Amino acid sequence: MTATAVPARTMRAAPTTRRSGGVVAMVALTLRTGWKPYVIWVIGIVLGYLGTVAAIDSTYTTPDQLASYGAAVGSKAMSAINGTPYGATNLGGIAANEFAFLAAVAFPLMATHLIARATRGPEESGLLELVRSRSVARWAPAVAAVILAVVAFVLVGVGMWGTLLGYGVDTADSALYASSLVGLGVVWTGIALCAAQWVRRTGRVYTISLLLLGVAYGTRAVGDVRDNGWKWLSPLAWQQETRPFDTDPRAWPLVLAFGVGIVLIGVGLRAAATRDLGSGLMASRPGPDRAGLVAGSVLGRAVVEHRSSITGWTLGGLAVALVFGPLVRDVGAAVAGNPQLGEALGGTGAGAEATDVYLSLTITLLVLMAGGFVIGAVGRLRAAEQGGRLETTLSQPIGRSSWLGAHIAVIAAGLLIVTVLPVLVFGLLVAHQLSDSTQIGHTLTAGLEYLPSIGVLGGFALLLFGWYPRLQSLAWLLLGYTTAIAFLGGILDLPDAVLRVSPMYSVGNVPLEPVSTTGVAVLAVIAVALVAAAMAGFRRRDVPS
């Protein structure tokens, strides 16, 4: 009699799910419950590229100006930063070179985020176990995640292709460029999917991805500077070697990118179909029988929760410092020889200021990476709530303020580590290259002066967590806006009020310009106020909500 009690509607749905393996159902479920990150990534990258193209089109208006840009960025030192500037004497080539660094970071991070949140995240929270209790194949969630990620990259590619067409760039060249970026996204989708099968924790997926991104960036930089085969070990080089806007565009690197991506996706899907649910291919180290004095405390648990993220972002920042530091002399000379390039980077490029232009650019990058750490760390708090771990914790004699305060303290300490260590290493390398020990303090001070602005980013993320946790992804949108203003604000004709939405803008372009002490003080007050408001909201709202 029990079997006859099953609703007919449920019994009819099961065969359909079995025929598709549950892929269609998983795609629909993911879009219904988590469509916002896809929209934010697609729109954010396309708008960022549109702003880049528009700024370049308004800055380099004559053939002579275009040619001067190509001559300025043609040095090996400049190639280490953005890659070999193929075709950087026309609008498409200059835009590709200017957007190269952002693309090299944004596309891998987009792939990692979309794959991790759709595979390892639900598995870690227990949602995937519930889903697979129905007629859903083991591999269906991973296949659905890959499909949605690839579709998102295709939409980004179409948006960038349309942007170039709107500015009169050749159709075939634009299509090749967009396809090369989609290929990079497919490769990193495969990398992220394999990482999600290798480790058990979502945070470690990001750590692996960031480490591999650092290796890929380093090998590409070494290969471009030394003009050897090292760059072919990097997917970042495969994208650039299509040379879409040069005199000899090449489509065959697309075969390499898509081929490797498909193989990696296949390996990841095979692992997802064969491994045990909740496990990883890399065996987890058994923990102690009981928590120690530190790990048993609220603060100790917060340290355990965030230490992998702190390690990953710090190593990523150190990789950037190690690549950029030795180039300060050559890049400074290139900026000094091209006033327009110096102006695009925020200065005049004259005299000693040329070095500060490069220092400002690199420090800004390192500080933005610290901002990514802070927002990601706050996102872990939301993940703990969604996964049910926060309810379990608060069921113990632990107050909400104590729990959130401990995590804020660890995140703040992590911010200092993620910022200070890479900036200090960069300053040491700059001092060595220029034989000027004062550069150590000069560089470190500039990095520290940006901390209140990152505090505002973190405070905004905490405010969303405390009051509107469902809008947590807006914090990443603010970071994306801050990044766009930091790199393109100098050449975009935007009102001052629009620029000041970026917290970093109020600090000033240090060390190129004197720091705004008033701006730093105001930002510090705002950061403290945001944290206090977040604490108040968290004490009042429902958990989970």
TrEMBL record:
TM region(s), chain numbering: 38-56, 99-118, 139-164, 176-198, 205-223, 251-272, 310-328, 357-381, 402-430, 450-468, 475-495, 515-538
Q: Which UniProt keywords apply?
A: Membrane, Transmembrane, Transmembrane helix
Coiled coil spans = none
Name of the featured protein: Putative ABC transporter permease protein
Give the species: Gordonia rhizosphera NBRC 16068
